[in-house]
Structures are given as C-alpha cells and as structure tokens.
Amino acid sequence: MRAATYFSLSVLILHCSIPGSCFIQVSGIYAGVAALGSIIYTGFDSFVCHFKTCCDDKWIIKNLTGLEADLQRKLHGQHLVQKTVLGHIKGHLRTNNPSKALVLSFHGPTGVGKNFVSRIIAENLYREGLHSKFVHLISATKEFPHEGMVPFYKERLKAWIEGNVTECERSLFIFDEVDKLPTLLLDVIKPYLDYYEHLGGINYRRAIFLFLSNTGGADIGQIMFEHWQAGKRRERLELSHVENNIMKAAINADNHNGFWHSQLISTHLITAYIPFLPLGKEHVRKCIRDGLLNKNYFKEAGKIPQDLIDLIVKELTFFPAVEQVFSSTGCKRVSEKIDLVMADYKHSKRLEL
C-alpha cells in the first residue's frame, strides 16, 4: 500500500499547485486518488506475482481433490493416515481464520511413508511443492547436532519461524527426525502453535506444522502384530487404539530428546498423533510395482511379471523372525533392490522393455 500512498500524495500536490483548485475539499480528492492509487498498486502487485512466487492463490493452490487422490492411489497400507491427514487439512483450510495452527505428528518405523506423505501434502497445497519458498523442511541432525547449543538453537528457530510466517501466513513447516532434536528445544515454538490471534502483529494460526518421528514405532508395531494375531483385518484398527500409546511413548522417550516432557504435548497443542503402520508383503509388492513403473522398467502395471516381484521381495527382510509378517524397512529399500534385481533379470529373460 506504500506505493499507492506515494502515488496519491503526488497527484494531490500536483492538483493543488494549480491556482484556484484547492477550494475543492481535500478529503474528497484524497479519497478518490487513494482509491485509484490502490487499484493501480493492486494491479501492479498481481502483475508481479504472475512471474514471482507470492503468498496468494496462484502459488498456494490448496488442491484438496488432488491430495485425496494421491493419498488413496500412491500411499499403501496406511488407512489411518489417509483418513486423518485429509480430514484435518480439509478442516484447517476450510476457513481463512482457523482457531490455531494445524500440528500433525507423524509416528512410525522407517520406510512407512512419513516423508512421502509430507511431500504429497506439499505438492497439493503449493504449486512448486517442496521447492516452494513457503515450504520449509528442517532436519534435526543437520540443523541441531549439538546438545550443548540449545539456547542458541532456540533463538535461531524462533527467528526462522517468525521470519517465514511474516512473509507468508500459509507456510508449511516440516520437522524431520524430531526424535533426535535436543532436549526441550521444541518448547520454544509453543506460542506459535497456541490459540493466540496475533503475536507481535503476526497471525500464526494459518500455518501448518508437520513433525516426523520414529518415536512410538515399536509400540505401533506391537499393536499391529497383536491385531494381526487376533485375525482382525488391518482396516479395523482405529486411531483411538494407537494414539494414546504414541503420546506416552513420545513424552517418555528414553533418549530424553524430541518430545520428551514437551509442553507441546502437556498443553495439548498437537492436533493429532498419526500412526504409520508397519507394511505387510502385499503393500511392499505394490511399492515394487510403483517403483518398476516410475523407473521406466515397464510401461504398464499389467505387464510386470509376478515372478520378478517375488524376486525383489526376497531381497528384503521381514519380522517377526518366525511369522515374517511385516517389512523391517517398509518400502525404503525397494528402489535399490529393484535396480539390483533388474540388472540380472533383464539379461536372463531378455526382456523387451
């Protein structure tokens, strides 16, 4: 608006420099010129944002239909994630004035889709996905490696969040490896997740925070195994069966890092604790199919030989040792195992790909 004001004052001065013209009410002139200046400024701003990333609907696309489709089509074996993530994001974006920032905490063992879902969210809410200047990914082990520097880290983290939300209130923050964060570091961001309408003139309630952690993975695995042993369908497992266990595991973490004794938990500022379940062989097979297509080894899913998928499955490890029900690494090592097996398979079968 500053440009519009300068424009308005310039025209007003020019008008009053003409003899006999200033008997007209200045307030009326100023109001009219200010309105014109505002229109010109707004038009210029829209023109600039056509080429430059701005915090507006052109760059923050909020594609909820695409989000739902991607979660259903690309994410395997995670019915609790699909339902909970979609529901909370829809609710948060439904209004321009949510009551607080959306805070989702993803928990589960390695390779089950925590980073993958974060990417899906970014790609459907922001035109440039993870490359958007309004999507902020922070790795605990990279950015906060030293336990003894917590006071310095707290100030840096505060400044980082305040600066980014000042630039765009619809920012997305992704904290990876939360379980490796120094003790109580996360408590410094508590005010930004609370119900304050403004802090220092900034509205943090439109932002989204994702916390990714392995904490609770063992508990989730045990609950899922007992569920399987009881002969129950995977899809019958409900969030209420798992969420409380995750919260307890996080706040009582053995390594005293991440959410250990965190005020974010004790003051109930985390919107939902979302469990990522261990993946069974049927889910791993789907990941293998997707990987073969994405790597262009095959053009159509129907042309992928089942014996090839079986060979790749055999390269992976499963637990428990006797039952061999769940993948030890989820789908994390599928990509490298595909390349390993395909090197021999293409030669032996003389495939025409």
Automatic annotation (TrEMBL):
Localisation per UniProt entry: Endoplasmic reticulum lumen
Keywords: ATP-binding, Endoplasmic reticulum, Glycoprotein, Nucleotide-binding, Signal
One GO MF term attached to the UniProt entry: ATP binding
One Pfam short name: Torsin
GO cellular component, one term: endoplasmic reticulum lumen
Primary location class: endoplasmic reticulum
Annotated Torsin-1A C-terminal domain residues: 282-339
Family: Belongs to the ClpA/ClpB family. Torsin subfamily.
PANTHER family cross-referenced by the UniProt entry: LD13476P-RELATED, TORSIN
Protein name as catalogued: Torsin-1A
Phylogenetic placement of the source organism: Eukaryota, Metazoa, Spiralia, Lophotrochozoa, Mollusca
